[in-house]
Specification:
Elements (H helix, E strand, L loop, with lengths): L10 E4 L3 E9 L2 E7 L9 H16 L5 H5 L2
Antiparallel strand pairs: 1-2, 2-3
Length: 72
């Protein structure tokens, strides 16, 4: 893991097209601004893990019998 120190308004660059800027620091909270291309998804880690879990559940579920839904 790379650990960097930054002050308010300073940035880091990831690759050629992702910039993370320190917007504000208040106590133990840091506000970040992220500039990245639209095709790159950005999530908080807890949201990302929740999405992964839901995707895993969906992949593990059994296929629905669609024929049975329309049969009367």
């Amino acid at each position: 893991m790379l650990v960097l120190s930054r002050k308010k308004t300073q940035s880091i660059i990831i690759g050629d097209n992702i910039e993370i800027t320190i917007i504000d620091i208040q106590g133990d909270q840091v506000r970040l601004g992220i500039s990245a291309p639209r095709n790159i998804t950005i999530h908080r880690k807890e949201v990302f893990l929740e999405i992964q879990e839901e995707n895993k559940k969906a992949a593990d579920s059994k296929p629905t019998d669609l024929y049975g839904l329309f049969k009367k």
